[in-house]
Specification:
By secondary structure, the protein is an alpha+beta fold. It has 4 domains: about 60 residues, no CATH class; about 80 residues, TTHA1013/TTHA0281-like (2-Layer Sandwich), CATH 3.30.2390; about 90 residues, no CATH class; about 80 residues, OB fold (Dihydrolipoamide Acetyltransferase, E2P), CATH 2.40.50.910. It contains 9 helices and 16 strands. The strands form 5 sheets. It has a 4-stranded mixed beta sheet with strand order 3-2-1-4. Helix 6 crosses helix 8. About 20% of the residues are buried.
Amino acid sequence: MWTERDQIQAYQFLRRRLVSALTVADANHPVAPNRRLVFGVVLGGVATLLTAAGFGISGLLQPSPPPDWKHAGLVILDKDGGGHFVLDKDGVLHPVANLASARLLANSTKTVSVAGTLLRGAPRGAALGIPAAPDTLPNPADLIADAAAVGCSRATSDLPKVTGPVAALLLEHTAQATAALGALTVVPDGRALLVQDPKGDRFLITAGVKYKLGDRPTLIALGYQNTATLPVTDSWLTTLPAGRDLNLVAVPDAGKPGPHVGDLRTKVGQILAADNPVAGRSGYYLVRAAGLEPVSQAQAALILAATANAPAYAGEGMPAAKPVAVADVAAAPSVPPGDDAAG
């Protein structure tokens, strides 16, 4: 009686005979019929792996250049030395000082890495770029677009005076920073600050603009000689746009005859004040040889205080603005504001 094991072995023996008869035309062939197939598959796989490894090693030893890198509009990086380059329209390769300069010259942020051996074959031009420009640039997504910059400065009462003032620049309004801003003093509209930098120069801060003040006669002319100054740092001052320097203004040809304004015979360099009840304020005008030039109240004060303009008030005592009627000013010739009378 055959067991189940005997039946399985008999089935396998019969199957091998059938396969051998079909593949090698011999049912009693001593070698397994699939041996050649297995050997061929293994040999082919090994050959494929060796071929792929050979191509990989060849690619590492002899890298091919990036596609279409020899044209303008690309930031080229030296893969070996790490330098930055740009190509001009004539195909000349220019070394660039930093990444920011390279992007500006290429007018693009597209970057390609090229081996140093390939770059040595290109014609070289002069070095270009902005000295000390940043070599790393943030991504556009990392830029702060919502919060406005806030500069703060204060004189510290809890630190020795030799340490100087403390300045901080807030770029991002976090919840904690916004809460801290609520405790700061805001300069009201129409008010100003008189500050002093570490070098001793004084500045008038008004409407978000800094104006550098001249020497003591300038302070006296503006009425600031007894005003306390707030010490600030240079870094805080650089956050403010600069206006024109405020100095005493010398008017050319001061003391020579000027135009008639109503019944008044004027002299070049005099200041006229026209009270305008409709506007609710006085307008100030500088007498020029060709007509009247409108000036601000601060400019008028700087012109009156300049000793160079004393001939305009010869024999009249202290220089002062002369009152005139608005209608007389309107009838007099006028000239546009000039640079030499701007304070």
